[in-house]
Structures are given as structure tokens and as C-alpha cells.
Amino acid sequence: MRATAPLALFAALLALPACSDLAILDVATVMGTDKTIPDHVISYYSGKDCSTIRTERGQTYCVEDEPNPEPLVHCYRTLGRASCYTQRDPHHDGQQELGNNDHNTRGVAQ
């Protein structure tokens, strides 16, 4: 029953005329939080940060659904600090990239 409550509320909100007090409240909510009232309900029940405004900006509906791109830098240990480059092993000296622990699995039966 709990899962159907947000859908019923969402359907009821859509059925109301645009001139209602709820529509004015919805506009004020969007201005203050970048979320509509149904967005708040969906965010609450899904546990995610969702907004229709995000989709209008070309983003995913929920922040948590945004893809996490791979970094375009490769860092190597140097004296006292790490040096980062846009390509792998730029000096061709066989250094191990920081954060890459593939050497621990070499020779191990998988």
C-alpha cells in the first residue's frame, strides 16, 4: 500500500486545475528548491535526489543516476609527490600507475 500512495498523490496533483492554490505552491516550491511537489514525493520514497528541472537541463532525473565518468588523468609516484599526465606512462619507463593494484593479482590462479 505504501508504494501506491505516491502514485495516487502524483495523479491527484496532475488532475487539479492549473489555477489552483496547489499550482501556485508548486511554482513557489520550484523557485525555492528546483523541485516540483511530485519531485519531492518521488525523492522521499526513492531515497534519491530527483528533479524535473534536472531533465530540462539535459541531466538525468535523479542525481544518483548520473554516470560517473572515468578520470582522464594517469598519476605516477615521483620524489615527494605524484605527477599526473593525460596519457599512460608518458616516459615509457614502466612505472606503475597510482591506484592500480593489478600487480597483486599476477600469477594468481583465477
Task: Based on the model shown, name its key terms.
110 residues; alpha+beta; 2 domains; two-stranded antiparallel sheet; 4 helices; 2 strands; 36% helix; 9% strand; rod-shaped
Number of helical segments with 4 or more residues: 4
Residues in helices, as a percent range: 25-40%
Strand content: 5-15%
Question: Roughly what is the average pLDDT, rounded to an integer?
Answer: 75
- Whole-number radius of gyration? 24 Å
- Per DSSP E runs of 2 or more residues, the count of β-strands stands at 2
* Class by SSE composition: alpha+beta
Query: How many domains, in number, for the residues?
Result: 2
Shape type: rod-shaped
Q: In order across it, which strands form the biggest sheet?
A: 1-2
Question: How would a crystallographer describe the biggest sheet?
Answer: 2 strands, antiparallel
- Low-confidence stretches are none
What is the CA–CA distance across the termini?
46 Å
* SSE order: HHHHEE
